[in-house]
Specification:
There is one protein chain. The chain has 9 helices and no strands. It is mostly helical. Helix 1 packs antiparallel against helix 2, helix 4 packs across helix 9 and helix 5 runs antiparallel to helix 6. The radius of gyration is 21 Å and the shape is elongated. The mean pLDDT is about 80.
Length: about 180
């Protein structure tokens, strides 16, 4: 049986905030698990609550003990390389601002300019990635600006912990003062 111990009130508050407000489901789930474990829930109870294997719970605990808040986030995963380069994506964004209602026109212009064939779904993903997609885009951008420093800090701590095995990551992340705007 493993329980989380020694969570300061500030750490508990930040974990609750991650649990309630993180944009990533897995981060919310892991933060909730850490809080419940600190509250005295056993690993068996946590397995049933989160519908995962015991080993998964132990992995979450190990990541928390090794990297603290950065351990809540997933590793960067490699995926398919983008069809368009950065410069081509910027050109596509310009086409999208010129023709916001006509994705087929944007696809045609991109194909003429780059001689690469992309689908309208690719263009929509690019729109979603750049937060230009219709209603609520300004809200989405504001939330991203608020959360970006917190996420960047966690990822920096995670990277530091991952690249420097001789460094005590728990002490390192505890030294970082995380100010998360309200």
């Amino acid at each position: 049986m493993r329980f989380m111990r020694d969570l300061s009130p500030e750490t508990q508050r930040l974990l609750r905030r991650c649990y309630k407000e993180s944009q990533y489901h897995r981060v919310r789930q892991r933060a909730h698990c850490i809080l419940l474990s600190f509250g005295g829930k056993t690993t068996t109870e946590l397995m049933h609550i989160f519908d995962v294997e015991r080993l998964t719970i132990y992995h979450w605990f190990d990541a928390w003990e090794r990297c603290r808040f950065a351990g809540l986030y997933d590793h960067a995963k490699c995926g398919r390389p983008p069809k368009l380069t950065e410069a081509e994506q910027e050109q596509a964004q310009q086409y999208m601002t010129q023709h916001p209602q006509n994705m087929k026109k944007v696809v045609h212009l991109i194909e003429q300019a780059t001689s690469k064939r992309v689908s309208t779904k690719t263009i929509k993903r690019l729109l979603k990635k750049t937060a230009m997609s219709g209603n609520g885009s300004s809200t989405h951008q504001r939330r991203a600006q608020i959360r970006r420093p917190f996420y960047s800090l966690c990822m920096a701590a995670y990277w530091f912990c991952d690249k420097s095995p001789n460094v005590n990551a728990q002490q390192t992340t505890q030294r970082l003062r995380i100010s998360y705007p309200t």
